[in-house]
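Exam revision sheet. Question 4 asks you to relate a sequence to its structure. Input first:
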Amino acid sequence: MLRLSSLPLRRLSSGPVSKLSPSPASALSDAFSSAGRKDNLTLCVGGFGLCGIPESLIDSIAKDHPTATSLTCVSNNAGVDGFGLGQLLESGQVKRMVSSYVGENKTFERLYLTGELEVELTPQGTLAERLRAGGSGVPAFYTPTAAGTVIAEGGFPIKYAADGKTVEIASEPREVRNFLVDGNEVPHVMETAIKGEVSIVKAWKGDARGNLVFRGTARNFNPEAAKAGKFCIAEVEEVVEAGEIHPDDVHLPGIYVHRVVKATKNEKRIEQVTEIDPDAGAGAGKLPTGGRARIVKRAAKEFKNGMYVNLGIGIPTLASNFLPPGVSIELQSENGLMGMGPFPKKGEADADWINAGKQTVTPVLGASVFSSSESFGMIRSCKVGLTILGGMQVSAAGDLANWIIPGKMVKGMGGAMDLVGAPGSKVVVTMEHVAKNGGHKILSDCSLPLTGQRVVDLIITDMCVFECDKVGGGGLTLTELAEGVTVDDIRANTGCDFKVADELGVMEN
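Answer key, structure tokens:
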């Protein structure tokens, strides 16, 4: 049997019309002409943070097409102040953002809280799947993500009045339906597909036929955004001749792409340049001390050999520094990397290789990269068996709140709702036992909007460890104490009742 790689690649005497465009401005003019207007468009935008964003096309919308206004931008986030989609926020061209994460963009947060910007916050995996569905002719789908939260129940503020308190537009409730999963009735939320009149994406290489190749974690949302647009423009770092990309190596076929343009801006900023100085010793000065070290060391004991693991931003990420002897795990980063390795050495940071916290990382030998929808497919189907993430509040029933303080802090849920919403995966929450103001963080009921309902299996704090019977409804059981901490100390600092195990373990300092 002949292999494709052994066959010659033939050139047709008269192939398709070239999709190459002379400039970002020209490509955008074609896109707006195809849509029949410039304003009130839905614009699907690839990228994750600042990784893999179409810088040149965004810049051209702001400078060459200022009448492209009242845009609904569908993107995981909105860049940073003054860069990426942050440019379009500052120029007033965006009416609504459909995103999973506000992040550190102060303009984004300010415009939302003062009623100048509509924001439809959507779980990251749901956002990726809505785009994928839109590009695949699937009008809607059911997902366990966000069941029991305000996202499913509706009423979350999409637009505030100028006072920042009165809600002018609230989200609509989703349809919820139970499906049988491993013998249990599990609620699933119906989400509708997203389609855009125009999509703009960034790739590493592209040819005149529109075939694209992405590099590293810069793939992220780009394939999904490209497919969801009726007219897609791909900004590429390198234009190659048709045939230079072997069919086996095409990441996105040209059928989804209408124009290819060479990038005129390729700054490729990095939000969190995180490097190791070999002269100071690997990881020197980065490992936690005190109570945080206790949390991290205890979390590391949850690792089992061969596990596929997702570690949240902050304390959880540090747990991999304390792998038990003989234990090897595979670290997944939800922006599209399996086999996440250490931070790069000083001077070797690469903008195309970042983790979900926007930090620069390196892949391990044998790592793989994939799109955001593929990543969350792994998560949703419980192929990732363990998730460790931070929390603001946890209830006695295993409810988790960790993504927003209404009216004060808007970060967005990112991928957290997807990570904790996968039925059957183990969820470990790591956090300080008491809030900075002395308030309880472990409560009978969470007062903050939920990330997930009945999702937490284990709580690890600087004072103790609780097991949670999230399925049986048996509440919390205290299983371990930090050295010098008593059960009475835990009762005084915990806002709910709990059981005490017959034998209490001692946490390692």
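Marking note for examiners. The mean pLDDT is 93.
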